[in-house]
Amino acid sequence: MTRFFLLMLLTAGLGDPAASQDEREEDPWKPVRFLEGSWTGTTEGRFGSGTVERVYSFVLDGAYLHERNASNYPPQERNPEGEFHEYWSFFSYDRARDLLVYRQFHDEGIVNQFVLNEAHTKADLIVFDTERIENFGEDWRAREAYRVISNDGFVETFYLAAPGKDYELYVTTRFERTR
Fold first, then answer.
1. Looking at residues 137-161, what average pLDDT do you find?
2. Strand partners for 102
3. Which range has the worst mean pLDDT, 7-11, 78-82, 139-143, 175-179?
4. CA 146 to chain centre
5. Banded pLDDT at 47 (limits 50, 70, 90)
6. Which of 10, 68, 93, 115 is a plausible cystine mate for 28, CB 3.0–4.6 Å?
7. Would you say the C-alpha torsion 70, 163, 32, 148 has a positive or negative sign?
8. How far is 115 from 106, CA to CA, in rounded Å?
9. What are phi and psi of 85, to 5 degrees?
10. Contact 144/158 with Cβ under 8 angstroms?
11. Are 178 and 39 in contact (CB under 8 A)?
12. What is the CA radius of gyration of the chain?
């Protein structure tokens, strides 16, 4: 079965294990590779102010970049009850579209599926736009942007757009690498 699958891949032109490094495409993970590691941050937005802990690690033999996020918003004027918010994400490389895909799985059941917005992405700015939001209002859109400050720091901004409206800032988080 494994030999058959490998033969199918090779004959479909999806890869040649004997190809030289020069013949292979550029690293598809390049825009997000710097994220690998552990981070802490402070966040400000619709839920008030809080703290964030986040870890990014390549999993399943490097096929995915896995993100684990935990945000804590203590009770405050804008959020009297306080809130703990957790989500897991996976970045994947879609070979058919030659595109990074980013899927967030939130603790309240919302799933955001983003794709890299190549038109807005630059060396110091990585932008992902939703192509689908599961378990949320119809026709909403979201954008997540990472402004790279250094190898050990970045600022993440998350925007939401109601149907027929422009993006509005939802939350900004400043991260520093811890390892």
1. 96
2. 91, 114
3. 7-11
4. 9
5. confident
6. 93
7. negative
8. 17
9. -125, 130
10. yes
11. yes
12. 18
**The pair of three-digit structure tokens given for residue 41, joined into one six-digit string:** 């941050």
Tell me, yes or no, if the pTM score tops 0.85.
no
Count of beta carbons in the 10 Å neighbourhood of residue 43: 21
CA 24/CA 37 separation, integer angstroms: 26
Q: Is the pLDDT reported for residue 163 higher than 70? A: yes
**pLDDT band at 25, cuts 50/70/90?**
low
Q: How many residues appear in the chain?
A: 179
Selection from 24, 5, 4, 26 nearest residue 15 by Cα:
24
Contact 116, 103 (CB under 8 A): no
In this structure, are residues 162 and 140 in contact, taking their beta carbons and an 8 Å threshold?
A: yes
109-123 as b/e: b if 16+ CB within 10 A:
eeebebbbbeeebee
